[in-house]
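Have a think about this chain, tokens included, and walk me through the fold.
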Amino acid sequence: MLYALLLPLADTFIGFNVFRYITFRAGVAIATAFFISLVAGPWLIARLRALQVQQAIRAEGPQHHQVKAGTPTMGGILIVGSFILATLLWADLANPYVWTVVLTTLGFAAVGLADDWLKVRRRQNLGLTTRQKLLLLTLIGLAAGLMARSSALPAPHAGALALPFFKDVLLPLGLLYLPFVVLVLLGSSNAVNLTDGLDGLAVGSVAIAAATYTVFVYVAGHARIASYLRIVAVSEAGEVAVFTGAMVGAALGFLWFNCHPAQVFMGDVGSLALGGGIGIVAVVAKQELLLVIVGGLFVLEALSVLVQVASFKLRGKRVFRMAPLHHHFELLGWAETQVVVRFWIIAIVFALAGLSTLKLR
């Protein structure tokens, strides 16, 4: 909105030329989303407390987490509202990729909101059933895949998978493209959801992944840089860097209130939206497979749950003291802040590993 209003002024005042640059607007989006989060945060937390929108703590979780019962939840509304608003203010809304990532994120947020609201109403950790959630997210994922492919047409990479570490290699997926996009979005959203178990852990890790994909999507949208690095050039995709930048700003703003001891939890409305948002950005940037590296921490958290469940069903024994993985280290005696900061370090290492692949072609 502001982009459309300010850009024409560049023809009269040379100083407004800066709004032509995606990097500048991405930086402004970071600051805008961060500012909105800081300003709106206290008001939202107060409203959630007044409405008694409180977190229900699982009885089977670590016992020392019971002191967190009653902490306001659904704070993801603050994150999503901040970075979506910042995106609408500073992105080129004529760009189809912008609407692809925005609408997909809002769809995942809506499912998370419904899940959170049911948990609050029932006063227990039971929201949508697994089948209901899976069905809704799958439908949104299919719509996201259709939008991403139609936005890319008639480019040869539309509906194709780019293989990391290989120069100019595209694997046409045909009818498998939409199921593949659904798999990416379901995997990323649920992995972030599983990681959201300690104060600041998920939102800090998302900020790291979003910052990394800001680089990826900008590079993919810049024809000259993409050609130099021998990655798939996605015309107009660079505009999505405004979206990912805004996500970084909103995540950092929310972390102000979510760091230990948390004043508010993001809930599923936040974790599903952030995971789905990162996933669809990876699809747009044609860097879906690298999400396994960049989001390596989320992958480890999700794998720990799968391994734990499989081991218990097949062997009757647990591999970890508790899953997801962060609870295992808590029960080993690590303080909550130690687990969070050390996992952030791991997330940064994975992000740097992902960025290093830009030169491994």
In short: The CA atoms of residues 21 and 249 lie 18 Å apart.
